[in-house]
Amino acid sequence: MDKRNVIACVRSGAEYPSDPPFHPGEAYAEYALGATSSCANDAYETVRECFRLAGLDAAHLATAAWNPMRDLIQPGETVLLKPNLVKERHPRDPSGWRYVLTHGSVIRAVADYVFKALGGDGKVVIADAPQTDSSFAQIRRRLGLDAIRDFYRRQGLACEIVDLRKEEWVAKDEVIVQRKRLDGDPIGYVAFDLGDSSEFVGHSGEGRYYGADYDAGEVNRHHSGGRHEYLIAGTAIQADVVFSLPKLKTHKKAGVTVSLKNLIGVNGDKNWLPHHTEAGSDDPGDEHPRPGAKHRAERTLVRQLRNLAARAPGVGPWILRQARRVGRHVFGDTEEVIRSGNWWGNDTVWRTCLDLNKIILYGSPDGSLRRGTPEHRKRHFVLVDGIVAGEGRGPMNPDPVAAGTVVFGIDAPSVDAACAWLMGFDPQRIPIVRQAFRCTHYPLSDWDWPDVRLISNRPEWCGPLPEIRDDATFHFMPHFGWKGHVERVASSDSEGKPGSDAS
């Protein structure tokens, strides 16, 4: 893989293994960790094949010396593996976490090859900041992360698992009833101000941004007066390499969530992050496509109840919970109606995500930014877990797609463009993807998405993205707030049919 705009993609009939720490099903020539499984490990094989297909360390292929990360990761470095650990459970399916979270078997396979490149030195950190009302302990159990870490430590390899959040919430009926302080990132946090280099420059939402908590004043304090501030986990800033391991899913606010959206999880305080823009006196914002009288009444009521919940932590949340139950009947359930910027017109969250990507590529531990040129970028690699992907009401309530697909690249915007195309979407119609190629201050890529090329084990998936036929790709069902606005080709017979498969 000598060109950054070339993305490798393997499609197989892979399934996830069930027993952590997810040893490979055979002793490959390059495998030096000893333990193997008596059962097949399709996920490991698919990740391995993706690296082979990418042409990594081709001179040593099929030998004990094969080291696919040889030219990407150096001995002694610290590598952050950043999976998507958003939520430990699916609201409708007890096993649905498999298409919500990056699977532990994919994390293990990538980590094996990272450790090989580190040569017995250096460190791997598996870290994320899940949604604040998620249980990190349950996520670790679901994915077998402790078993993976303990296996490496028995081999004398340095592996850590870190919850990057400073706070964990307990929620009932989607209302915060308890807040627990956490140890957070052991390295601490670094504040960055992108200022004139932010994607929010020129945006009309100042003073009306909504973040992740009831106190909207917090997010607006960090995005006003020319400031555009973010609090980033020191682990992500100090790591030599960020290796993103996103899940292939649709997303209610961004259209898709792959690598660019995945970096939401490196921040230290989600209430510094604008998620959508509320309506103003002469500006409709992007919270709702048709903010009429009913919507305005709902927003006024919600704002008053949230303020009460913040001021009166005992009775306030209880009142808010009762009001939400009644409100579902009057205003509709969030999983059925558009609210909170969950639609194709969200002009806010993509800016947040691309700002975070800029910081990861160019941010220094002292809070300054390096020169915005390619040679000064941090290494940010991506391997996408699409073995069981998610469509529809993503990111936390999707339906499964047995895509059997793994995607790898060394340019995050190109990976996301390739994934969007394979999902049946038009990258040009998804702001987080389209705009990633257009950042002028601290660019994220050096070409445009039509220049991205795929190499694959499927001949029909090889070539420039615009030349890959529609009938050769998947046709994921978008989130209902994006339906009819992101599909590459409208298919009259696909409406209401989830999981349309590639031919």
Brief summary:
The chain has 503 residues and is α/β, with parallel strands linked by helices.
Report on this model:
By secondary structure, the protein is an alpha/beta fold. The chain folds into two domains: 6-276 and 343-472, no CATH class; 290-337. The chain is 25% helix and 19% strand. The chain has helices at 42-53, 104-118, 136-143, 145-154, 216-221, 234-238, 259-262, 293-311, 315-331, 349-362, 412-422, 431-434, and strands at 6-11, 78-83, 123-128, 159-163, 167-172, 175-181, 189-193, 209-210, 229-233, 241-245, 247-251, 255-257, 276-277, 379-393, 397-401, 405-409, 453-456, 463-464. The strands form four sheets. Strands 1, 2, 3, 4, 10, 11, 12, 14, 15, 16, 17 and 18 form a twelve-stranded mixed sheet that branches. Strands 5-6 form a two-stranded antiparallel sheet. A two-stranded antiparallel sheet has the order 7-9. Strand 2 (78-83), helix 2 (104-118) and strand 3 form a beta-alpha-beta unit. The chain starts with 5 loop residues before the first strand and ends in a 39-residue tail after the last strand. The relative contact order is 0.15.
